[in-house]
Amino acid sequence: MRIASLAQKVAVAVVLLCCVNAARAQDSLIVNLVGSLYSFWGITTEVDISGNYAYVVTGNTGLRVVDISDPTQPEEVGGVDTPDNASDVAVLGNYAYVADRDSSLRVIDVTDPAHPLEISSITEPTDLVAVAVQDTLVYMADFYEGLWIADVSDPSNPAMVGFWDTPGYGHNVDVVGTMVYFIDRQQGLRILDATDISHLLELGFIDWTGYNNAVDVQGSYAYVVNEVQGLRVVDVSDPSHPTEVGSLDALDMPWDIIVEGDYVYIADNSAGMRVVDISDPERPSIVGTAGTIDYVYGVAKRDTIVCSAMWEDGLHVIDVSESTLPIEIGSCNPLGYLSDVCQQGSYAYLASEEGGLRIVDVSDPSSPFEVSCTETPGTACGVDVSGTIACIADQDRGLRIFDVEDPAHPVPLGALEITMFTLKVDMVANNAYLACGGAGLMIVDISDPSTPVLLGECVTPGFTEDVKVDGDYAYLADGSSGLAIINVSLPGMPVIVSEIATPGSALGLDIYENYVCVACGWGASCMVDVSSPNNPQIVGQFSGVGYAQDVSTERHYAFVANGSAGLNIFDISDPTAPVGVGSYVTPSDTRSIFVTGNHIYVAERYSFEIFEYSEVTPVSGNTSQTPLKSSASSAFPNPFNASTTIQFDLPRAGLVSLRIYDILGREVATLVNRNLSPGTHEVRFDATDLPSGIYFYRLTTSGNSEVRKMLLVK
Asked: What distance in Å separates the CA atoms of residue 406 and residue 346, rounded to the nearest whole number?
């Protein structure tokens, strides 16, 4: 699980869409992450090797650690999220130094590679793209500002000690002794004397047309890769007069380079990983190429293996013991992005774009674990389960049907090839209803799962993204055309009975009593009264802060998957006036959501998350009087075993924080971090997973901060 690292990223905000009378405290929801699984990689751009581990930066999913002790079976063993977009990494000793673009340098303790831990950061650089480390100094290439140098003799407290402003845009850096070789994206190779790091002195430079990407230095030569000019070999024996002595133009678009002995290893974009003989630096020549199915952006070498960072295809390991015949021997590429989720019994069923059907045991929501992964021939976009049958909407490969009586061993039963995009599926009785993009709705008889039969189809005016069926009607999220309602009482002859435009593109929907709740992308999502299917009416609207892609209703709440903004929750007990009552900013792109009971199952782009939600309840009998100041009452009971209740008063509406700390001052729980209305509120604190001891709770409001003590006895 990644609960600890994710908790640092949580920013909880409540969206209130209507005014609340001060005499009545508005109920609000607490949303807590209880379990997570997977860490699908983002864009894989760079890699460094230390010992038996490869350290891979994966864009907005941070740093991943891969065990390469057996190069034929590299295995991810750990990882840590970073706040922005990890672009480069350098490892020395027990520390990994990560360039995290706008969030600058992150210092990660990798003493235990399975549990990397961020211990510090520096925020001065504005767009950090590359790092190099030597002894106790980290050299950083900032895209807009130039070269920064940080002293990391105390890794927990790095300090900026040097700066040099590049004439163009910083892109890469290498260090040998007191010499710094800095790549300016547009102004070539700049050579700096760093004898006095507080007064860096430029000695010389050499420039080429085209974009310069990376440099590696060995002996008297600097090897530079340029997108247009290929490989340039520069004699730097006289740093004040660097001179090009050799070149190799026959490259695609080289991004990274590493030099060892008589060879350089080049990440050459779509052409793969190149091996270049530089035994004669004046006449470099390609002697070997390891092809690729994706772009190669980063390389690192250990002994006879090269690790290549391959954009969206993860980490690939190449055997270069024979320089003229480099061969890929292993790879690590967590399968595909998640696109949909549903839950039944003790299992969650996930559609993974590259991984197919993934089944996760969620009987203990705090510790979900995968029990099976079954690939499909297409791109799994949607999933639904009924009884022992699971259906996958497999995009350009139509419908795939599985027997999941034993979730650990799903058995393919049948398939129906459909040339149009199959994006979502809803199973009702013996039929599967498919949202098929430009083809609209397709209805398939799956009474014999081994031989599915197309019963009927209905083309809609838009692009059908989602479908839900209730009784004789199918409700379609029809993209820019809004909501389409189709009579399916005769599955062989489905007929459109009505359409209604929505405030934005209809991307997802769910049914709540006589209403359809529609997620409308960038537009305001809406409640549609469908009590008369022939005459649907929009009766209420609500907006989160992101791109609404999916929605699930439970009780009187609508849970909206809002893309990079996470999830938003709205009280729809009055469909004409939905009210925002809770939210959670998830670590990546929230794409699909399924809610049952008190649990929220979320398919993010890079991970699967399970949340619990509960209510902050106004205390009855006290809501008619507004407190004069904010205050926290003693927890009751106190001492307590397992759980206690904390009551507090608010004189006015505002942002409220209620956090729990242990005796060492470490935060162990966030109970509230959101806007609340005036009045008296109470929150339950569940300490089931915490050890006995003294704990403190801090109530913080705009005008007050108060700390109280409580004792947990088990």
From this structure: 12
Q: Enumerate domains of the chain plus CATH numbers.
A: 44-165 (2.130.10.10), 174-313 (2.40.128.630), 347-501 (2.130.10.10), 621-712 (2.60.40.1930)
pLDDT in tens, 58-112: 887 889 999 999 999 999 888 888 888 899 999 999 999 999 988 789 999 999 9
pLDDT in tens, 420-429: 899 999 999 9
Amino acid residing at 626: T
- 171-195 pLDDT, tens digit per residue, is 999 999 999 999 999 999 999 999 9
Give the pair of three-digit tokens for residue 548. 């609404």
Length of the chain: 714
Per-residue model confidence as pLDDT tens digits over 30-53: 788 888 877 677 789 999 999 999
Around Cβ 291, how many Cβ atoms within 10 Å? 11
In whole angstroms, what is the distance from residue 587 CA to residue 7 CA?
A: 9
Q: Is 624 helix (H, G, I), strand (E, B) or coil?
A: coil
> Which tokens is 663 given?
């005796």
Task: Return the CA Rg of the chain.
Answer: 29
Contacts 24+ apart (CB under 8 A), 561-566: 561/508, 561/519, 561/590, 561/591, 561/592, 561/593, 561/602, 562/590, 563/589, 563/590, 563/591, 564/588, 564/589, 564/590, 565/590, 566/590
Give the strand pairing for 298-302 and 146-151.
unpaired
Question: How many Cα atoms occupy the beta-carbon half-sphere of 527 within 13 Å?
Answer: 25
Report the alpha-carbon distance of residue 178 to residue 255 in Å, rounded.
Answer: 25
Alpha carbon 231 to its chain centroid, in Å, reads: 35
8 Å CB contact between 146 and 137: no
pLDDT digits (tens, 9 = 90+) for 566-591: 888 999 999 999 988 888 878 778 99
Q: How many Å apart are CA 334 and CA 316, to the nearest integer?
A: 12
- Spatial neighbors of 561 by CB under 8 A, at least 6 apart, are 508, 519, 548, 549, 550, 551, 567, 590, 591, 592, 593, 602
Here the tokens at position 531 are 């009590």
Instruction: Confirm if 357 and 380 have CB atoms less than 8 A apart.
Output: yes
Strands 679-686, 693-701: pairing kind: unpaired
Rounded to an integer, what distance in angstroms lies between the CA atom of residue 311 and that of residue 46? 9
Main-chain phi, psi angles of 221, to 5 degrees: -125, 140
Helix (H, G, I), strand (E, B) or coil at 191: strand
pLDDT at 293: 63
DSSP assignments along 291-302, one per residue:
--SS-B-EEEEE
How far is it, in rounded angstroms, from Cα 569 to Cα 551? Answer: 10
